[in-house]
């Protein structure tokens, strides 16, 4: 049984004060205990949000990290720094980081290994552009991203990794992949994991869909057999909507 996971990616939104207001709104609601709820806040709010969610089942995630433990990398945050705060997850290789900050499959692979070694779980983002989809290359692109991301990662780590399939054309655009297209691509990613590892890892790996997920479409997506959760941007910034997503 794969535990469903709904993760909110707040991106570069919310000061500490706003983050605490949002988390208060979420935590006072009854949240489905069978769903793992994660909030991925900006670095600056991690420590305060960690304090605020104490005693709840809400998990904490960062949105990025460097792979080295320390060093001359001005402006970067190390996995040890995140571990010290007590993060449970870190988003790795989000398309915005690939697009605007030159993140590559190689750095994604290094970051996944580093997160696992440090002791928290990576949420690894993959997904194709509209151009790639229209050229019939979605599977080829996503397969290469998965193979490169998982290079030299042993099969016994698969239970500690979440993949987020996020077609870039559906992020923040209001366009959602149809639930059957999303399920097909998540199934294709699952099959790829089965090819890299074995049937066991194929069944274990948790795969989220991301791209304009909102209260009105979450149920249909979550009913699909290959979709184990959602990575959510816009709708995670409104407490009432995020709670609806967790309680789909
Ligand atoms: C995201 O940022 O990962 C995302 C899926 O954003 P949105 O839900 O706003 O499309």
Automatic annotation (TrEMBL):
Q: So which domain of life are we looking at? A: Bacteria
Residues holding substrate: 9-11, 172, 212, 233-234
Which EC numbers characterise this protein's activity in its record?
5.3.1.1
According to its UniProt record, which residues of this chain constitute the active site?
Answer: 94 (electrophile), 166 (proton acceptor)
Q: What is its main location?
A: cytoplasm
Which enzyme type, at the first EC level? isomerase
The catalysed reaction is:
D-glyceraldehyde 3-phosphate = dihydroxyacetone phosphate
The annotated subunit structure for this chain is: Homodimer.
PANTHER family in the cross-refs: TRIOSEPHOSPHATE ISOMERASE
Q: What is this protein called?
A: Triosephosphate isomerase
> From which organism does this entry originate?
Paratissierella segnis
């Amino acid at each position: 049984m794969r535990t469903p996971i709904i993760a909110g990616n707040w991106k570069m939104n919310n000061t500490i004060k706003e983050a605490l207001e949002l988390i208060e709104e979420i935590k006072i609601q009854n949240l489905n205990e069978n769903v793992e709820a994660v909030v991925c806040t900006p670095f600056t709010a991690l420590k305060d949000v960690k304090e605020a969610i104490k005693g709840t089942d809400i998990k904490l995630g960062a949105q990025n990290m460097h792979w080295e433990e320390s060093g001359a990398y001005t402006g970067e945050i190390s996995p040890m720094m995140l571990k010290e705060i007590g993060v449970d997850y870190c988003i790795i290789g989000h398309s915005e980081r690939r697009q605007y900050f030159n993140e590559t499959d190689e750095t994604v692979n290094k970051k996944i290994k580093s997160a696992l070694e440090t002791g928290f779980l990576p949420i690894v983002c993959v997904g194709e552009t509209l151009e790639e989809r229209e050229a019939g290359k979605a599977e080829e692109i996503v397969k290469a991203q998965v193979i490169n991301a998982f290079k030299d990662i042993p099969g016994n780590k698969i239970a500690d990794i979440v993949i987020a399939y996020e077609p870039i054309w559906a992020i923040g655009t209001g366009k959602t992949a149809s639930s059957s297209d999303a399920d097909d691509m998540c199934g294709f990613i699952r099959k790829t994991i089965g090819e890299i590892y074995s049937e066991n890892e194929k069944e274990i790996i948790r795969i989220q869909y991301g791209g304009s997920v909102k209260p009105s479409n979450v149920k249909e997506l979550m009913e699909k057999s290959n979709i184990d959760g959602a990575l959510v941007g816009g709708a995670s910034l409104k407490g009432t909507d995020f709670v609806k997503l967790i309680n789909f």
